[in-house]
Design brief:
The structure holds 2 protein chains of 2 kinds. Chain A is mainly α. Chain A is built from 3 helices and no strands. Chain A starts with a helix and ends in a 15-residue tail after the last helix. Classes of the chains: A mainly alpha, B mainly alpha.
């Protein structure tokens, strides 16, 4: 199998993830979609790693997973905090940064 | 040690004193600040003497040393080093400045002891001495201007030393503003000369000046006239003199040091230093000589009518500096500097004695209040008499030789200089008259209440409530006002030592230039003025006639003063009423303040308020400030709508932007 198939799947997953982040309003789902995007990148990294026959890409993928874990921790913490304050679980209501 | 090393130490000692005392000023116990300051200046004086000795060991033709520590600016056409010029002229000046300053510091140790700003006073005083030494030692125009501005700043700080007195702060501001006029003149004059010589260094400037300037050419005349503006402002010559009498608001040692002995003679030094340039601009020299003569007469007449003890001496200072300016402008350099030296001695002595009198009067300075101080203040009286005799030019006191030296040399130029000669002797008559008017009124006659308290009860008069002698405002004795304790020389050893030494100098200072006998000062200064094109050799007749005339005029002045104020006490008011227009003119100081107010201050104030109403309102506030804010406000309104606060929109922007960037690079490759 050529690298192209791996990249196609990776791009597809990334696009699904990005679309999800853009259209979904539930922060939990937004986080899930972010995970999709990160893992799409991981897939591409591992594909390249296999293509070149060395482990660099895999090391990158591991580090991305660590980052993803951290991000989920923070993101879930924010969601729990929103829930405790009885805020609506909807990213569009959080718009205090408007100019 | 070379003479230049000694000169650097002369400069470093007062600077070190300033820095040490300003860092520790509120931790120094008792009078230690005064002693540190005095020691710093004494070190400076010792090394000034070392420089003098070392310079005399060189051959006369080589007594012009420069020393450069580092380069301040070196770009195309400008070569400004931190360099000193050590030659007989600057060495004479540092000896006089450091010597007199040491004695005045010593005097201040006691005189200021009751003041709450004791340490601050000595910081300022040391800073002033440093600035003055920098001014006279500077080896190029840049350092000269720096020193020139520093002494102006130090003078401002010391005049306004009692900063809670409104009269003192106003006087300080007035002095500073008029001095800045002089600074501008000095800087512009330097530029006129620099344009042609392309160097800031004194030695190089004087070397190339005769080659690049035709004698009497426009630029060198303009340059010298502008230098004269600087000299007039610093040396209180008409019409830039009005700050000096007001500067008497400062403490008396300040008047003695800055406004009599050192700073106000900077203009004389400047003209003497620039003599190669002034000889190329004879017109500028003539202007200087005429203004000097006018100042010595006008100041003398005002001194006759002033009733404030210190102001009388201040007008006398103006008048004596008029002699010096006249001398150095007319080419009698050594004579002018001789008078500068003797004047520093006897005028500092007079101010110190006046300080003692003011101490006995509880801070009051009015001659109308004083009388019969002779028995109350015997030591001060003797010092005052010695200073007064030296000032009036009575032989064998120092002022006699220096003043007659100036006038004999002026007379030897002939032509219209005879007018200056006559003015000089007329001024000498006025000098003797106002000096002894002051002495007779303050010291003779029935003792006033303050003197009686000292004679009968043996303690100093202190007013119930301290007041400002200038306007009668009630004040306290905290910091920013004079302290609660007044001091007289009779009860303070340091003051006696300082005044005694100065009295000796005032008596014997003339020994360095007795005509036909000792020409030490002339031959000492000769290397500096060797290239001078003006050679004045007064005939024997002129010299002996001048000495006789000077003595006669001085004695006549004292005699008239005796008759008017002692023998027939009622005469003065009668004369005053008979010559009512003249008296009014003198009492109002020839209306110079009013004239300057009408010609400069009011038009400037009017223009300022006009510009505020139109230019500032329409252009600055309207176009500049309003325009800028309008542009920024419109721009921010345009982009603000993008800031919706929807996180998803931002994500969308990022996705679109990144995609666009990615596509761009794809298309490029």
């Amino acid at each position: 199998m050529t690298i192209a198939w791996y990249l196609a799947v990776s791009a597809l997953i990334f696009a699904i993830g990005a679309g999800g982040v853009l259209v979904r309003r539930n922060p939990l789902v937004v986080l899930l979609c972010l995970e999709l995007m990160l893992n799409a990148a991981n897939l591409a990294l591992i594909g390249f790693s296999r293509m070149w026959g060395n482990g660099d890409g895999q090391v990158f993928a591991l580090i991305v997973m660590v980052v993803a874990a951290c991000e989920v921790t923070v993101g879930l913490g924010v969601i729990v905090a929103m829930h405790r304050l009885r805020l609506p679980v909807d990213v569009d209501t959080m718009r205090e940064l408007q100019g | 040690m070379s003479a230049t090393t000694a000169a650097w130490i002369v400069l470093a000692a007062p600077l070190a004193g300033t820095i040490i005392m300003s860092l520790l000023f509120n931790r120094l116990p008792g009078r230690s600040a005064g002693w540190i300051a005095t020691a710093a200046i004494a070190v400076s004086f010792v090394f000034a003497l070392v420089a003098l000795v070392k310079l005399q060991q060189l051959a006369p033709a080589h007594r012009e040393l420069t020393s450069s520590l580092w380069s301040i600016v070196r770009t195309t056409g400008v070569d400004a080093n931190a360099s000193l010029l050590v030659d007989p002229l600057s060495v004479l000046m540092i000896c006089v400045v450091a010597g007199v300053s040491t004695l005045i510091h010593l005097y201040s140790v006691s005189y200021m002891s009751g003041d709450r700003g004791y340490s601050r006073f000595f910081v300022y005083l040391n800073f002033f001495v440093f600035s003055m030494l920098l001014l006279v030692l500077a080896g190029n125009f840049l350092l000269l201007i720096v020193g020139w501005a520093f002494v102006g700043a130090a003078s401002y700080m010391l005049i306004s030393f009692w900063y809670r007195r409104t009269t003192a702060t106003r006087a300080g501001i007035k002095a500073f503003v008029i001095n800045v006029v002089g600074d501008v003149g000095l800087v512009l004059g330097t530029f006129f000369i620099f344009r042609h010589t392309h160097t800031l260094d004194f030695v190089a400037t004087f070397h190339v000046a005769p080659k690049v300037f035709a004698s009497g050419s426009g630029d060198v005349t303009a340059g010298c006239l502008l230098l004269l503006v600087g000299a007039f402002a610093k040396s209180a010559q008409i019409p830039l003199h009005t700050w000096l009498p007001d500067a008497m608001e400062g403490p008396t040692p300040v008047s003695a040091l800055i406004h009599a002995a050192t700073m106000v003679t900077a203009g004389v030094y400047l003209i003497a230093r620039m003599h190669p340039l002034f000889q190329l601009a004879p017109a500028a020299g003539d202007v200087g000589a005429v203004i000097g003569a006018a100042t010595l007469l006008i100041a003398g007449t005002i001194g006759l009518a002033a009733t404030d003890l210190k102001r009388v001496i201040a007008y006398s200072t103006m008048s004596q500096i008029g002699y010096m300016i006249m001398a150095v402008s007319a080419g009698a350099y050594a004579a002018g500097l001789f008078h500068l030296m003797t004047h520093a001695f006897f005028k500092a002595l007079l101010f110190m004695a006046a300080g003692s009198v003011i101490g006995a009067m509880g801070g009051n300075q009015s001659l109308d209040r004083m009388s019969g101080m002779r028995r109350a203040l015997p030591f001060t009286f003797v010092c005052f008499i010695i200073g007064g005799l030296a000032l009036s030019g009575i032989p064998p006191f120092s002022g006699f030789f220096s003043k007659d030296d100036i006038l004999a040399q002026i007379g030897s130029r002939g032509g219209w200089y005879w007018g200056l000669y006559v003015a000089g002797y007329l001024g000498a008559l006025l000098t003797a008259l106002y000096t002894f008017r002051m002495i007779f009124r303050a010291f003779l006659g029935e003792p006033c209440a303050e003197a009686r308290e000292l004679i009968d009860h043996g303690h100093l008069f202190h007013p119930e409530q301290p007041t400002n002698p200038a306007n009668g405002e009630v004040e306290d004795t905290d910091v920013g006002f004079p302290g609660p304790e007044h001091v007289i020389a009779e009860r303070a050893r340091p003051m006696q030592v300082a005044m005694g030494l100065l009295a000796l100098l005032a008596v014997f200072g003339g020994i360095v230039g007795i005509p036909k006998t000792t020409t030490w000062l002339d031959s000492f200064l000769a290397p500096t003025f060797a290239s001078s094109t003006v050679h004045l050799h007064p005939s024997n007749t002129l010299i002996y006639f001048g000495l006789a005339l000077g003595t006669a005029v001085g004695l006549l002045g004292i005699l008239i003063a005796w008759v008017v104020w002692v023998a027939k006490p009622g005469t003065a008011p009668v004369i005053a009423t008979r010559l009512r227009p003249l008296t009014t003119l003198f009492e109002n100081k020839w209306y110079f303040d009013e004239l300057i107010d009408a010609l400069v201050v009011r038009p400037s104030a009017w223009f300022g308020s006009f510009a505020q109403g139109t230019f500032e309102r329409l252009f600055v506030n309207g176009a500049l400030i309003g325009g800028t804010t309008a542009v920024v406000r419109a721009g921010s309104a345009a982009v603000r709508s993008a800031e919706s606060g929807f996180v998803r929109y931002y994500v969308g922007f990022i996705v679109v932007g990144l995609t666009a960037v990615g596509l761009y690079f794809l298309v490029q490759s």
